[in-house]
């Protein structure tokens, strides 16, 4: 009897100490996630914002939403074999005009579908401008990488607990509106949640604490809409090989995500090592940010590795434009106003639609087995960008 009692206690302890990531209510099982992934083609795409938009507000606000440029530039993506795109939304767009925002997002999804591209839609983002506002946005700061990107929600809305119902309504509303839409690949619930972005160092602890409170709720809000698409949030820093060393934010991301996503801007050896760290989770893996030439992350180095491991690959940037992300990160401290960088950091195409490196687009076509050269190059809004 004593032996049986001891065994029963041990069994009970084993059940109650299963890691939290296996117990998340509503999370897809490993089998469901892998079955879903088996039905997908190899996913290759870019983080997409049209070249005439400095941030996601300009991309989707009624006054500046531009179907024509989205059509042209997603056509460039299709021409080189891309079949997905990571696209950032913003909570204030929903707060301002839910019906109008849904209509514009529906139009965008129709354009993407025309080009056989299924977007991964990002709901929240902790990077860059801390207090975004609707309406006209400032012009790009000369020589500076991504000088106008905005967070969602910004610091003020994030830390104000009374705003939480608005954030819940946004997630439930936008996911609910498109929960069964086959044009959408999935939902990226929160981009780099614990990134301090443009926040002051003194404010970072409070921000991360609040993010860790909201992140599981955001997954719950999204799941309450019963989406047919998977949910994810990309891990981007720390050691993922040992749960004991993971940050609280990373633990939440890995416990909640139906499919695993990650960011890596390192050399090919690091990129491969990161994939191996995540394979222990036995779920599909998608790299939702990579390719920063000056940091050692290139199509030539990372994309063949992604294909070998059947990992989806979504690079940062498509067409050079208002975000100026062809400039390197060091431009935050040393703006490139007099001289240009030796090599572009991000982006695949110049503003006039010609490839930055022909070899890269040829490689993407070769590895994906998709895409055809554009019959003719369209016109851009500013032929001098990145020249």
TrEMBL record:
Domain of life: Bacteria
Biological source species: Granulicella aggregans
InterPro entries: GH, GH10_dom
Keyword Hydrolase: yes
Signal in keyword set: yes
UniProt KW keywords: Carbohydrate metabolism, Hydrolase, Polysaccharide degradation, Signal
Gene3D superfamilies: Glycosidases (3.20.20.80)
Gene Ontology biological-process entries: polysaccharide catabolic process
Boundaries of every GH10 domain copy: 149-231
UniProt name for this protein: GH10 domain-containing protein
GO MF terms, alphabetically ordered: hydrolase activity, hydrolyzing O-glycosyl compounds
Signal peptide extent: 1-20
SUPFAM superfamilies: (Trans)glycosidases
């Amino acid at each position: 009897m004593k032996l049986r009692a001891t065994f029963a206690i041990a069994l009970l302890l084993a059940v109650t100490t299963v890691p939290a990531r296996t117990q998340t209510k509503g999370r897809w099982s490993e089998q469901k996630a892998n079955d879903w992934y088996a039905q997908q083609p190899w996913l290759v795409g870019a983080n997409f914002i049209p070249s005439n938009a400095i941030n996601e507000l300009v991309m989707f606000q009624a006054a500046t939403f531009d179907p024509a440029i989205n059509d042209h530039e997603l056509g460039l993506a299709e021409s080189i074999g891309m079949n997905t795109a990571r696209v950032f939304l913003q909570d204030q767009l929903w707060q301002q005009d839910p019906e109008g925002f849904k209509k514009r997002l529906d139009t965008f999804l129709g354009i993407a579908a025309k080009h056989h591209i299924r977007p991964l839609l990002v709901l929240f983002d902790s990077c860059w401008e801390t207090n975004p506002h609707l309406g006209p946005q400032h012009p790009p700061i000369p020589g500076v990488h991504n000088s106008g990107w905005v967070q969602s929600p910004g610091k003020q809305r994030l830390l104000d607990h009374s705003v939480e119902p608005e954030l819940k309504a946004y997630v439930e509303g936008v996911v609910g509106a498109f929960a069964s839409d086959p044009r959408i690949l999935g939902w990226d619930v929160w981009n780099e949640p614990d990134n301090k972005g443009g926040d002051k160092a003194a404010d970072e602890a409070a921000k991360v604490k609040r993010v860790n409170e909201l992140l599981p709720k955001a997954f719950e809000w999204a799941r309450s809409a019963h989406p047919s698409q998977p949910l994810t949030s990309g891990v981007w820093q720390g050691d993922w090989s040992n749960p004991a060393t993971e940050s609280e934010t990373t633990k939440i991301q890995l416990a909640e995500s139906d499919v695993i996503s990650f960011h890596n801007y390192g050399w090919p050896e690091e990129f491969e090592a990161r994939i191996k760290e995540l394979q222990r989770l036995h779920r599909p893996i998608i790299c939702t940010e990579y390719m920063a030439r000056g940091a050692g992350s290139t199509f030539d180095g990372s994309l063949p590795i992604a294909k070998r491991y059947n990992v989806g690959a979504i690079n940062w940037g498509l067409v050079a434009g208002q975000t100026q992300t062809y400039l390197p990160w060091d431009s935050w401290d040393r703006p490139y106003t007099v001289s240009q960088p030796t090599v572009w950091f991000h982006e695949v195409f110049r503003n006039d639609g010609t490839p930055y490196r022909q070899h890269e687009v040829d490689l993407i076509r070769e590895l994906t087995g998709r895409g055809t050269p554009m019959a003719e190059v369209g016109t851009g809004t500013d032929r001098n960008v990145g020249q």
